[in-house]
Amino acid sequence: MSEIAAVVIGRNEGDRLVACLTSLVDHVARVIYVDSGSTDGSPEAARRLGAEVVPLDMTNPFTAARARNAGLEALADAPPDYVQFVDGDCTLKPGWIDTAHAFLEDNPVVAMACGRRREIHPEASVYNRLCDDEWNTAVGEALACGGDALGRWTALDAVGGYNPTLIAGEEPDLCLRLRVAGWKIWRLDAEMTAHDAAILRFGQWWKRVSRAGHAFAEGAYLHGKTHGHWVGETRRLLLWGLVVPLVTLVAVLLFGGWGLLVLGLYPLQVARLARTRGIRERFSWEWAFFLTLGKIPEALGALKFYRSRLTARRSTLIEYK
Predict the structure, then answer these.
(1) Is the CATH number 3.40.50.2020 carried by domain 4-200?
(2) Predicted TM-score of the model (pTM)
(3) Is the distance from CB of 155 to CB of 54 less than 8 angstroms?
(4) How many CB atoms lie under 10 A from the CB of residue 140?
(5) In sequence order, which residues have a C-beta less than 8 Å from that of residue 218 and are 6 or more positions away?
(6) Which of 100, 270, 284, 293 is the most buried (most CB within 10 A)?
(7) Ranges of each domain in the chain
């Protein structure tokens, strides 16, 4: 009989952590909760629910990858067959573990299996709706999974777990290394987790998208030449988030107010993108608008990465909540 353990990471998640850990009861043999300096009593609450608590060393810069690796290290004394990774602001859907476990048992070449992550309150803000849409990825063989997934211990151990230096994009980086090693990643047509993004303000969305831009740029830097990883994404964000604004500035300096006509490229791009999803749907326009606008914070995040490379200073975490 296969043994399944869970690694949960979080900081100051409060009731969300309690809901997360409760959803794991009776579904896994061990729960490792890695706490990143909570001040709300999360470690004590986790212990009461039967989790083994691992306090992350906060004297070193925090990354989610470091936290997940700490969870894996805590399991190394008696390695399970599979590890369910869950973020502390998520709850596991009933039946997911059984579905994913059966799939991995029947498909020994698959290292990571993920399903549908849903936003709990998509109606609360357009930013939550964008998250919910972002997670609705194609079913079947995939390039990567997100923070929630059931992984095979032997595969995770073979590639050394997550890259602890990455402040974002650690899951696609892990999945790329797994695929290079001959493993496959799979997205199942099954409900997996419910997530509470709680992005209610524009500033939160801006920071989250900026973090994505940093991840795109760093991923392209690490794996672009050999595997083409996130090269296209980085080029697009630099084009729309940096080149177009700079061209507009130069045009204004040369031609005055007429130079602002360059900004007309943005509404044209929004309309083009909205058409791909149906112009009669309101969300198509919301998605297209924020996808286009988001190239600016993405470019700023990419520039933050490039600056860190030039100055040999490590980037700090970009937190949005």
Answers:
(1) no
(2) 0.93
(3) no
(4) 9
(5) 166, 168, 169, 305
(6) 100
(7) 4-200, 210-311
Q: Helix/strand/coil (H, E, C) string of the chain?
A: CCCEEEEEEECCCCHHHHHHHHHHCCCCCEEEEEECCCCCCHHHHHHHCCCEEEECCCCCCCCHHHHHHHHHHHHCCCCCCEEEEEECCEEECCCHHHHHHHHHHHCCCEEEEEEEEEECCHHHCHHHHHHHHHCCCCCEEECCCCCCEEEEHHHHHHCCCCCCCCCCCHHHHHHHHHHHCCCEEEEEEEEEEEECCCCCCHHHHHHHHHHHHHHHHHHHHHHHHHHCCCHHHHHHHHHHHHHHHHHHHHHHHHHHHHHHHHHHHHHHHHHHHHHCCCCCCHHHHHHHHHHHHCHHHHHHHHHHHHHHHHHCCCCCCCCCC
Are 9 and 36 in contact by the 8 Å Cβ rule? The answer is: yes
pLDDT of residue 61: 85
pLDDT tens figures, 206-256: 999 999 999 999 999 999 999 999 999 999 999 999 999 999 999 999 999
> Which residues are paired to 184 by β-bridges?
110
Regarding beta strands 4-10 and 149-152, do their DSSP bridges make them parallel or antiparallel, or are they unpaired? unpaired
Are the beta carbons of 85 and 152 closer than 8 angstroms? Answer: no
C-alpha 226/C-alpha 223 separation (Å) is 6
Contacts of 272 (CB under 8 A, 6+ apart): 288
CB atoms within 10 A of CB 213: 28
How far, in Å, CA of 77 to CA of 33, rounded?
Answer: 16
Question: What's the rounded Cα separation, in Å, for the pair 9 and 171?
Answer: 14
CA distance 206 to 87: 21
